[in-house]
Write a structure and sequence with these properties.
Structural class: alpha/beta
Distance between the termini: 43 Å
Helix content: 10-25%
Largest sheet: 7 strands, mixed
Low-confidence stretches: none
Strand content: 35-45%
Strand order of the largest sheet: 1-4-3-2-12-13-14
């Protein structure tokens, strides 16, 4: 299977599931656990920064691990976090990692960024303004390490939280976002991760904070 990273054009479908993950910060094992359990359910992976090297190392591993390869969505979008480099080597090629990007899925514009350039610790105002500029229906971002979702005038701003280093008493989280072209509907499910007694990872549905979140860190 050929994996496309930040493709210029995405194949249009009527319905799609996006695996939204952010801030793995060196924990490729956690990222692998998420992909192994949920990757095959989704056709797109959106990684919102701070852990690009973790993801690329798993993609290289998957080239020699067919079972892992079947768990990785065929389309991957990545943006640069404040802890990431601007480019990486992957499969003998240079992968440039943009600060942000806009793309279309199910007829809806998606805007994706890490969030540190929009002062997301202090609210969503700047990020919301950017979503207007990009005519976005869905905004995916990270940086705060706190799961949060809110809707402003029909625009969904969704932070999957951190899969490895949550803050503010939050669990390790990520999200699956479902888009429907006909209804223009955006649905989402958050999942939390917990360690089992045998060191396995247990996934449970999670209700994230909804609405404005001013962290004032």
């Amino acid at each position: 299977m050929q994996i496309k990273i930040n493709p210029a054009v995405t194949e249009e479908t009527d319905k799609i599931k996006i695996l939204a993950v952010s801030d793995s910060h060196g924990s490729s094992r956690t990222l692998e656990a998420i992909l192994t359990r949920f990757g095959s359910m989704c056709s797109v992976l959106c990684f919102c920064g701070d852990g690009i090297e973790d993801l690329l190392s798993l993609l290289e591993q998957a080239e020699h691990d067919q079972e892992l390869m079947t768990c990785i969505p065929k389309t991957i979008y990545i943006v640069r976090g404040n802890g990431d480099e601007s480019s990486y080597r992957y499969s003998s090629e240079t992968v440039n990692v943009p600060m942000d990007m806009s793309f279309k899925l199910c007829g809806m514009n998606v805007y994706m960024t890490h969030g540190h350039e929009y002062d997301v610790y202090y609210g969503m105002d700047y990020l919301y303004d950017a979503s207007i500029v990009h005519s976005a229906s869905l905004v995916l971002f990270g940086h705060t390490h706190i799961a949060n979702v809110q809707t402003r005038y029909g625009i969904t701003l969704l932070n999957p939280g951190s899969c490895a280093r949550p803050r503010g008493g939050m669990p390790h989280t990520f999200a699956i976002v479902s888009l429907d072209k006909q209804s223009k509907k955006i649905d989402y499910n958050y999942y939390e991760m917990k360690a089992g007694k045998d060191r396995s990872i247990i996934f449970n549905l999670f209700n994230p904070p909804v609405g404005e979140l001013n962290l004032l860190w």
